[in-house]
Amino acid sequence: MNIDWPELSDEDIEHKAVTFRDEALTSLNISQGTSVPVEQIAELYLGYQFDFVEDNGALDSDVIGGIDFDSNTIIINAAIEGHIGRYSFTVAHEVAHHVLHRELFLEGRLEKSIMCRGGSVRPIEEVQADRFAEALIMPKDIVIKYFKAIKSRKPYSKRARLALSARIVKSSGLDNVSVSAMEMRLMHLGLIPALNEKMNPILKFLISILRR
Amino acid sequence: MSNFAEYLKGLRTEQRIGVRELGREVGVTGMHISNMEKGKSLPSPAVIVKLAEALGTDVDEMSHQANQIAPEIVGVIQNQPKAVPNFLRSAKDLTPEQWEMLQKQVDSMADDKK
């Protein structure tokens, strides 16, 4: 299938996610708390049903979720159900496909097929769905508020980044978010350095002296 | 879709509880809840009790929808293996009004026992 997915800026995706979340929660009459109820949004607001499949060939082994627009079904690899963070992110990712890609997908496909999450290759529509999912389940204002409340040095090492992310997940009450998803969210919001960004060597030297 | 499948899904969606969330509350997987709602599997008596509790509904009604008998009732029958079947055979043709009178009588006897 060859669909020419439109480019979407991070701001576009953030805006679409915020608008969608507000509409969904208003429609469901759910007050905006911290943890975003993605299961309810997918099922009760968008009308999808869930289908859990075991690793029996229904999904490729590296695929953890999918969406079938014909039968209004979100397919979840049963192996991830035990991990609330991965589960919620996968549901949010499929919701993202509904919001961002459904129309074009249905117009552009040649045969019945589903969109899947997983695999090592990340085409543009998958990257967009990941960004939307992040913005949907980790509201920007909440993340920034709790990030600011934690006085922390800029984390460069993986360990420091994950520790900070874990603290934010815990303090914010975003309890359906994984630590690694929070790390990506912080990075995409520019709150922590990008993965390849190195610490200023002078600063690194000064810190090493202070630690002695 | 079976009666129980529709009944369970209706109750869950009415209360806006997610599939996985309900599974966690009753100690089963979301996949099991999803399968029950598709009529692919049925709950055990123990799961019916937990489902009824989580969804705030009557366990007897839920057992009835699942074509099962609540474990508590099974226990009563097992404790009185002759009396209960005999009683039910005798009472099978009673009218709803007579059942109601009988229930009041039994409640009164149970209260006296306390």
Q: In summary, what is this structure?
A:
The complex is a heterodimer of chains A (212) and B (114). Chain A is α+β, with helices and mostly antiparallel strands. In chain A, 52% of the residues lie in helices and 9% in strands.
Describe the structure.
The complex is a heterodimer of chains A (212) and B (114). Chain A has 212 residues and is α+β, with helices and mostly antiparallel strands. Chain A has nine helices and four strands. In chain A, strand 2 (63-68) and strand 3 (73-77) form a beta hairpin. In chain A, helix 2 packs parallel to helix 3 and helix 7 crosses helix 8. By secondary structure, chain B is mostly helical. In chain B, helix 2 crosses helix 3. Chain B is elongated and about 45 Å long. The chains are: A alpha+beta (212), B mainly alpha (114). The A-B interface holds A 28, 30, 37, 39-40, 43-44, 49-52, 54, 76, 78, 81, 84, 87 and B 13, 16, 18-21, 23, 29-31, 34-35.
Number of helices of chain A: 9
Mean pLDDT of chain B: 92
Uncertain runs of chain A: none
Report the portion of residues of chain B in β strands: under 5%
Report mean pLDDT of chain A, rounded to a whole number. Answer: 87
Percent range of helical residues of chain B: over 70%
Number of strands of chain B: 0
* Order of H and E elements of chain A: HHEEEHHEHHHHH
Overall geometry of chain A: globular
Instruction: Identify the overall geometry of chain B.
Output: elongated
What gap, in angstroms, lies between the N and C termini of chain B?
45 Å
Rg of chain A, rounded, reads 19 Å
Q: Strand-residue fraction of chain A?
A: 5-15%
Low confidence ranges of chain B? none
Helix-strand string of chain B: HHHHHHHH
The main sheet of chain B comes to: none
| Rg of chain B, alpha carbons | 17 Å
State the secondary-structure class of chain A: alpha+beta
- Count of β-strands of chain A: 4
N-C termini distance of chain A: 58 Å
